Amino acid sequence: MTVPRTERATGETGTGPRPRRLTGGDVGIPPRHLDFRLPQEMVRWAYADNATATLFLAMLSAIFPPGEDFFVRSVIHFRDRVTDPELRARVAGFTAQEVIHSREHDRLNEAFRSRGFPVHIPESAVALALKVLDRTSPRQQLACTALMEHFTAVMAEDILGSDEFAGRVHADIRELWHWHALEELEHKSVTWDVYELIGTDGPERGRAAPLVVATVLPAVVFGWAYLLVQQGVWRRPRDLREGYRLLFGRGQFLRRVLGRMPVFGHPRFHPDRHDTRALEQRWRDTLFGDDGALAEQLRRPVREA
């Protein structure tokens, strides 16, 4: 089940209008070339002034570049099977957005490194875990990507749908996360629609969660724990308790996100069954409207794959 988001574009020629190749922007997945203005003296503990939660955010930023590279490769493997012009354009928009995400998180990760956070450790750990997933079939990799894209979409909706994240994350990096969350929602159904195109498989979908839990999750936990030890936070039990409460406590951010993950296993699962278009439009206006927070940082269009 796909919720249509756009109409086919046309172009003018000397003999009248004719269909032109759709782009990601035509189908609601525009690649936005942004250069975030990260401050030279970025605040050290950027999540509610808590080291434990901040280092979780740093770990999350660190794993995005290898993760999004895996996502793109798993989808691009089946690009030749995509003949529908709209889905081809959505794949192109998804690819371009993910490439830009990786670039901007590389820049944020460099800022974290300049603050003494060795974020290359969680990045390398997750990259190694994804190499294990690379040994599975291309179809299984796509199923794992669909699961992980579901996680990022649910997390993005939570970030944008409540005031909690904006109230806790420092302005130095808040807008970068808001932009990333918006684009995760814009392309949330692309991977699943490609998977449906090649034919979803029940056992394959069932293996996705155990595979990700057995490979990526230990790498994530290790990377976060390494940062906590390296920064000496493990000797600060009050900070650890408060950070855990902020992230996993009753009614808190990650507990809400994890609580919505099982829907991926439902036989009629489709990302667009949970409609976030109104939320997306609100944040497009907030970030990129005439007086949008990021309007001045929006640069030339990015060439799509």
TrEMBL record:
Transmembrane spans: 208-229
EC number: 3.-.-.-
Bias (Basic and acidic residues): 1-10
Keyword Cytoplasm: no
Domain of life: Bacteria
UniProtKB keywords: Hydrolase, Membrane, Transmembrane, Transmembrane helix
Molecular function GO terms recorded: hydrolase activity
Segments of this protein annotated with the region Disordered: 1-27
EC class of the enzyme, as a word: hydrolase
UniProt KW Membrane keyword: yes
InterPro entries hit by this protein: UCP07580
PANTHER family: METAL-DEPENDENT HYDROLASE
Name of this chain's protein: Metal-dependent hydrolase
